[in-house]
């Protein structure tokens, strides 16, 4: 069954992930143009972009545990998932800069230093930017595989920071972002606890 699933996945082109990944943005644009947003459209736009970025980040984190636990390989899609995460994160930050801050850079800097949730969010975004910029074969060749893998372990820091950013940004009890923080910690824990596929361990034993 696992081989059949992996065989099917190998036939799925990566561009389909990009196409599906743009659906949330398309829906957001539709709601914006048709008045489908809530009473605070700016807030809705920012939050929907930020949530979508987090969901794609979680999807990219799930690739390795899924392979190690179930033997199902989505590795060919992981780069696309990560870049989609950064795309939505960039749009989230851009919407905040343009609609909330009106590109007032000094005010933006003061707000980031004054509000912990903004500091966490911008730190997480900076880490995601470093990962996105180096998510290409040229960077792997230039840096070397070992250094590249060490750099991309920054996702272990970026993902919890993004979830904490969401939690602290809310004024009410953060049930939903709290749940996703637990999911992130569980996925990161699986990556550490299971260093190789279970099937391979059974063969060695």
Q: Please report the distance between the alpha carbons of the first and last residues.
A: 22 Å
Note the main sheet.
none
Helix content: over 70%
Number of helices: 12
The total count of strands amounts to: 0
* Estimated radius of gyration: 19 Å
Please write the string of helix (H) and strand (E) elements.
HHHHHHHHHHHH
Shape descriptor: globular
Runs in which pLDDT lies below 50 for 5 or more consecutive residues are 198-205
Content-based structural category: mainly alpha
What is the residue-mean pLDDT, rounded to a whole number? 90
Q: What portion of the residues fall into strands of 2 or more residues?
A: under 5%
């Amino acid at each position: 069954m696992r081989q059949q699933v992996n065989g099917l996945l190998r036939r799925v082109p990566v561009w389909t992930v990009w196409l599906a990944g743009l659906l949330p943005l398309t829906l957001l644009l539709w709601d914006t143009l048709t008045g489908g947003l809530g009473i605070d459209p700016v807030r809705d736009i920012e939050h929907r972009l930020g949530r979508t970025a987090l969901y794609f980040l979680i999807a990219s984190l799930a690739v390795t545990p899924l392979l190690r636990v179930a033997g199902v390989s989505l590795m060919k899609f992981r780069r696309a998932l990560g870049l989609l995460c950064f795309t939505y994160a960039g749009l989230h930050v851009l919407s905040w800069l343009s609609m909330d801050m009106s590109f007032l850079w000094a005010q933006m800097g003061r707000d980031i230093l004054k509000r912990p949730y903004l500091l966490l969010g911008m730190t997480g975004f900076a880490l995601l930017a470093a990962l996105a910029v180096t998510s290409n074969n040229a960077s792997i060749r230039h840096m070397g595989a070992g250094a590249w893998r060490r750099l991309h372990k920054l996702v272990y820091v970026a993902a919890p920071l993004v979830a904490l950013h969401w939690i602290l940004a809310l004024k009410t009890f953060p049930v939903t972002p709290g749940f996703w923080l637990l999911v992130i910690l569980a996925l990161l824990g699986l990556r550490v606890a299971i260093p190789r596929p279970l099937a391979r361990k059974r063969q060695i034993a």
